Each structure stands twice: as structure tokens, then as C-alpha cells.
Amino acid sequence: MFKACIVSAFLFMFMSVAHSLTWYYDFGLSNAEYSIASSESWSFLPPAQAGISKIKLGDAGGYIRLQNPGLGSLGINSELQIAASASGNNNKFSLYNYPGSGLFYTSFDILFGDNSGAGTVSQGTFYFSQGNGDSFTNNGGFVAAEMFSGLQWVFGSNGSLTLKYRNGSTWSVLGASNVFQGILYSVELYGNNSGTNTTYYRGGNAYVLAYNKQDIWINGVRIGGLSKGGIAGGSNID
User: Fold this and answer.
1) Contact by Cβ (8 Å): 162, 178
2) Which three-class secondary structure string do you get for the chain?
3) Rounded CA gap, 59 and 37, in Å?
């Protein structure tokens, strides 16, 4: 989910669940904009290969846009661009009810900045959340008890971003304290809510992931063995 003021994000996203199914969400090739304040839509975005996609706009403007060609050099398909609300009421993109599992892998590319892609925004907060519960289907903000993985980008001066992750009941800085606007970031999450330790393979290397833990990779750099958010152990992530 995404909320805050005068910011835009440009997102090309694909997900796979470490279950019996691997799938991707393709935003297609079209150009379109949704800018109806205090409204929601299940039909604006292309149908997801798995699960249900939904967008919601808050009461203070902003937009959700499919743009091709895009601004972030994220590929040949349309980018999903989200210009955030000018109030605390959030603008939100949700993908839910895909085949759930206690083990999951999620990957997306994301770029933050103003609506030209430049790194000039000085205030606002954007969130990513993955887990299970009503906050993924309704119009509200995140609920800590429903999150396995949570990321928070806080805008600051001089084009900086402070990146945090949901660490139990709090937000903790993830790796280096700052990342930057106007730069494309590839984010990968490996999560284990299955009840036992597991091993995954990346780049020819094996990584043990303990129960209730997650590994987060940013542009190929691993921050490993991180605690999950507040969701109950054993819950399917969907």
C-alpha cells in the first residue's frame, strides 16, 4: 500500500510464490490514467495471472497511471505510476487472493521521485506490505498483525530516501540508512512462515532461511536473517 504527499512512484512488478505455481503480473502495453478521488476500481488494471488486482484513490488527488513508454527504464511494457495523495489518506494498489503458501518469493523493480522521474521530492512516505488479512482487500492502511514483509520509504532532503523494514512491532532501518530518488531499485523478498527451516538457491549459492525469517535483497545485495512483521506463524501468505 502507498500513502503520503506530493510523490510519485514508478513500478514494474512481478511476483512468484514458492508453492507449486510461479507467476508474473504484467501491466500490459496501454496508456491510461485513473484519477477519481475517493473511489476504487477492480477493472482499471489488466487482470492478474493469479489473484485479484485493485486500486484505490484517497480524497486529496493524485493518480494511478499505466504509462508506455515509461520513465523508469523498467522494461518494454507499461509502468504502473502512482502519484500519492496530498493528505494522509492513502492511494493504494493491492494484489490479493493469489495461491498462498508459507514459503514465498516476491520480486519487483521500483523508482521514486517526482512525476518526471527526478529525485526532487522532500516529504512523504510509501509502503509495501505482504501478508494475509483484510488490509489487503479494503481501502485502509497497513495492519501490523497482518504483515509478514513490510517496507517503508521515507522521503527526505536532497533526494534521499530512508528505507526501513517491519521488524516485529517496529520499523528498523534496512541496511544502509539512505537510498536515493531517481534510481531504479530491484527488490527481492524470500520469506519463510512455513514452520520449519528451508533452503533456497540464488546465483548458484544456497541460503538457509530459518522459520519466521526473511531475506531481503536490494540490487543484488542480501540483508539476511531478518525478523518478520506481526503476522502469526504458519499463516499462508496470499
Assistant:
1) yes
2) CEECCCCEEEEEEEEECCCCCCCCCCCCCCCEEECCCCEEECCCCCCCCCCEEEEEECCCCCEEEEECCCCCCCCCCCEEEEECCCCCCCEEEEEECCCCECEEEEEEEEEEECCCCCCCCCCCEEEEEEECCHHHCCCCCCCHHHEEEEEEEEECHHHEEEEEEEECCEEEECCCCCEECCCCEEEEEEEECCCCCEEEEECCEEEEECCCEEEEEECCEEEEEEECCCCCCCCCEC
3) 5
Task: State which amino acid sits at residue 225.
Answer: G
Query: pLDDT by residue for the chain (238 residues), tens digit each?
Result: 332 333 345 454 444 444 457 888 888 889 999 999 999 999 999 998 889 999 999 887 789 999 888 876 666 788 899 988 777 788 999 999 988 899 999 998 888 888 787 888 888 889 999 999 999 999 998 899 999 999 999 988 877 889 999 999 999 999 765 688 888 888 999 999 998 999 999 999 999 999 999 999 999 999 999 999 999 999 999 9
Residue 64 CA to residue 82 CA, distance in Å, equals 5
Q: Which residues are CB-contacts of 66 (< 8 A; sequence separation ≥ 6)? A: 27, 28, 30, 31, 32, 33, 45, 78, 79, 80, 81
Cell numbers describing residue 49? 495471472
